[in-house]
Structure formats: C-alpha cells, structure tokens
Amino acid sequence: MSTDSRESLRAKEEDPGALPRVPLYQFCAPGKRTDKQAVMADEIQIITAPLVSVRVTSNVNSFTAEKRYDRSLTIGDLKGRLELITGGSAGTMSLEVYDPDDKLICFLNDNDALLGSFNIEDNYRIHVTDNTKKVGEFEDLSKVEKFELSEEEYAKRNDSVKAFLQKNKLGKYNEEEQARIQAEKEAAEKAEEDKASTFNVGDRCEVKVQGEPTRRGEVMYIGEVHFKPGVWVGIKYDEPLGKNDGSIGGKRYFEATPKYGGFTRPTNVEVGDFPELNYEDDEM
Q1: Exposed, middle or buried: residue 217 (CB in 10 Å: 0-12, 13-18, 19+)?
Q2: Among candidates 85, 76, 151, which has minimal Cα distance to 114?
Q3: For the chain, what is the total number of helices (H) and then of strands (E)?
Q4: Distance CA 106, CA 125 (A)
C-alpha cells in the first residue's frame, strides 16, 4: 500500500467523521506559475484567468449587458455591482448561471462564496431575478417626472442656449445676418417667379437636377402647390423617370401616366426645341 493510502486510512481511523480535503483554487494571470512548495502534494491546484467575461440579463429590464468580473469577488459583492446594472436589489435578487447554449449551470446562492469557485467561463450568462420589482419598471419613461419651464421663466435664465446666442449675436439673434439671409431668399424667389413667367403650358422642356439623369418632357403646370411653398413646374416626361401621375396627396394638377409625372423648381427647367429622344436610332 502506498504512503498516501496509509495516511488516508490512518486519518479516518483517528477521526471517522473527518471531511475530505477541499481542493485549493488559485487565480493567476495567464502564463504565470505559482510556488509549488506552497501547495501540499495531495491538494489540487487549478490555474485560471483572474477575470471572466459574462453577459448579464434580468427580469427587471429587457437589455443585455456585457461585463468582466474578478473571480475573487464574493457573490455578495457581485450582487452589489449587478444592482447598479439591472435595477434589482442586492438583498432580494437571485442569480442563475447559463452557458452559451442557455443550459442552466448553477445557482449563485452563497453570498460568502467566491465567484471563481463556481463553474463560470467566458460568454456565460448571469440572469438576475428580483420578484420585488415590476418588469420594465425602470424603462417606462412615462413615470419619470419631467422638468419644464415656461417661455417667460426660460427667458429670464442667464445660463441657457438662448441667452448665449443673444449675448454673442448668433443665429437668429444676429440681425444683420438674418437680414442678409432674408434678402437672399427673396432674391431667389423673385428669380424663380421671373423664370417661371417665361414658361407656357405645352412648352417642350429639358430638366436637369443634380444627381439625376437629364429628362425631357412637356410643361403641364406652372404655379403654387399645396405641398411646398413657392412656384413649381409640373412636367409630363417622355420616359417613366418621374415620381407620380400629376397628382400628389390626392390633389391633381395635371394628367400623366404613373411614373411619367413630376414637379420641379423653375431653375431646373429650360424650355425650347427639345424633341423627344428616340433611343432606337442608336441601336444597330
């Protein structure tokens, strides 16, 4: 019989109720070795990474958090950290561990035990259950009290964006800049109206819009529309390169086959002798 076997038998004879020796777990950084003399010959030494990456879910909210924890944390300390993530209470929460295939591995019930004493590997999931909380309790923004100010109260504040813009004469509070922008806008609108006044319904035209193919067609409408301000030109295109049939939002401005009608600004339109293109002439 070996020396170890004799010692085990002797120990049982001396104290039959003695518990088996508990393996010694040590957490070391990858690549480092421990002092073998510090470990007894009949103890088991397991070397593993000091940190473990896990996913955290909860019955209190619907999101998943990815976290890294030190294996030397006690379960009690872990619950305290999970309290900040999930909204559950450390004193009433229970923890379950699942592997990547959602198979239940273990329960983390002992608050004094170390996280590293449980079989938890990277990408495992710790699920927090706290039945004292309502599902979605912390995601319902309707229960959050909103801070509101009246226009009068907001105008009195000196630390607001409005106060900053007024003090530095920026944006709409720069009268000279706003006057220039308004003058440019009015000039552009006048140019649109002047050009549109040279068009007639039935004119052949060519439409050029940046980023779109050049199109030819016939002027069908000139004037204001209900969907945007200013003067617009309705075109019936020679090819199905339009966006409508001459009507928008249930209001009809002219007749056209679907996809042959469209509206554009007068600056994009040139009227003149633009015959319909015959693509068959380019084919052999």
Answers
A1: buried
A2: 76
A3: 5, 14
A4: 11
Spatial distance between the Cα atoms of 227 and 225, rounded to a whole number of angstroms:
6
| Mean pLDDT over each residue of the chain, to the nearest integer | 82
Neighbouring CB atoms inside 10 A of 253's CB total 19
What stretches of the chain show up as alpha helix (H) in DSSP? 3-14, 75-86, 151-156, 161-168, 175-196
The DSSP result for 212-276, as a single string, is S--EEEEEEEEEE-SSSSSEEEEEEESSS-SSBSSEETTEESS---TTSEEEE-GGGEEES--PP
Furthest-apart CA atoms within the chain: distance in Å: 117
Which pLDDT tens digit goes with each residue over 94-130?
999 999 999 999 999 999 999 999 999 999 999 999 9
Q: What is the pLDDT of residues 228-262, one digit of tens each?
A: 999 999 999 999 999 999 999 999 999 999 999 99
Instruction: Determine the 3-state secondary structure of 24 from DSSP.
Output: strand
CA atoms within 13 A on the CB side of 259: 3
**Over the Cα atoms of the chain, what is R_g?**
39
